[in-house]
């Protein structure tokens, strides 16, 4: 079972998280999600456990537990439905609107010069 673990302290290491879950059974993998630019933890991760009964017991007992002064959130990880995933360019306006400012018209204040080009 894949388990979501949220509200993690930013200082927690994967080995510490693994140790917490190993108290309930065998842990296949642990992954704390990090920012790809800074490498800093995003405060959540995933734990994979083979035995569903052990995984459920870990969820039941660790959800709301305090880790390094923070109450963590632990629940079964559900994959997002395919339709809810966003690509990089979704929801950015349509028809050549650059950032939602009105297409090729640049400026647009009352001083003129809104559209660049000839007379």
UniProtKB/TrEMBL annotation:
Residues 1-79 form the RRM domain. Residues 70-119 are annotated as: Disordered. The keyword Transmembrane does not apply. One of its GO terms (molecular function) is RNA binding. PROSITE patterns: RRM. Residues 77-87 have a biased composition (Basic and acidic residues). Keywords: RNA-binding. Gene3D superfamilies: 3.30.70.330. Residues 96-119 have a biased composition (Gly residues). PANTHER family: HETEROGENEOUS NUCLEAR RIBONUCLEOPROTEIN 87F-RELATED (PTHR48027). This is RNA-binding protein.
């Amino acid at each position: 079972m894949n388990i979501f673990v949220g509200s993690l302290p930013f200082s927690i290491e994967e080995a510490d998280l693994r140790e917490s879950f190993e108290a309930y059974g065998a842990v296949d993998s642990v992954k704390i999600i990090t920012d790809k630019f800074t490498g800093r933890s995003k405060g959540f991760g995933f734990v994979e456990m083979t035995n569903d009964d052990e995984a459920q017991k870990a969820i039941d007992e660790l959800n709301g537990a305090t880790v390094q002064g923070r109450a963590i959130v632990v629940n079964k990880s559900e994959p997002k439905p395919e339709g809810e995933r966003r690509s990089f360019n979704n929801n950015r306006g349509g028809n050549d609107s650059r950032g939602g400012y009105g297409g090729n018209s640049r400026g647009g204040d009352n001083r003129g010069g809104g559209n660049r080009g000839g007379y």
